[in-house]
Write a structure and sequence with these properties.
single chain, 151 residues
Length: 151
């Protein structure tokens, strides 16, 4: 797989994705980091919570906002195992996340480098630094294995 060690936040996001898979949820994990410290971590739980908005990114953003006592996550980084969808990309912008790191691209449902390209739109409230492909192989393999079991 990866030839070098992944950054600890992406390792943690992948661990969260594995937790999601064990629970029968699509294996996506997310971590919010502030000043080099993880302040929130989550994984997909839409089935368990009966909530279509319970994506890993949304849950991690909510937990980070509670931890900081502020709806603005200025200076925070979001590490996620899959390219965010339009809903999550919108939430990332509203939260004023400084940097987004994601592992695997999602040509079908992603909205950062694919589809809506939310951050490239003039209506985007906040410009986010985006770094893609960190841990892509591991994240993609988790997703492939998860869906192969269901076919």
């Amino acid at each position: 797989m990866t030839r070098w060690p992944l950054p600890p936040p992406m390792q943690r996001a992948l661990d969260e994705a594995r937790r999601a898979a064990r629970a029968g949820e699509v294996p996506i994990g997310a971590v919010v980091v502030k000043d080099g410290r993880v302040i929130a971590a989550a994984h997909n739980t839409p089935r368990a919570l009966h909530d279509p908005t319970a994506h890993a990114e949304i849950l991690a953003i909510r937990a980070a906002a509670r931890a900081l006592g502020d709806e603005r996550l200025s200076g925070c980084e979001l590490w996620v195992t899959l390219e965010p969808c339009a809903m999550c990309a919108g939430a990332i912008g509203h939260a004023r996340i400084a940097r987004l790191y994601y592992a695997a691209s999602d040509p079908k449902g992603g909205a950062v480098e694919h589809g809506a390209r939310v951050f490239d739109q003039p209506q985007c409230l906040h410009r986010i630094e985006v770094y893609a492909g960190i841990g892509a192989e591991e994240a993609a393999e988790l997703l492939r294995a998860f869906f192969a079991q269901r076919r």
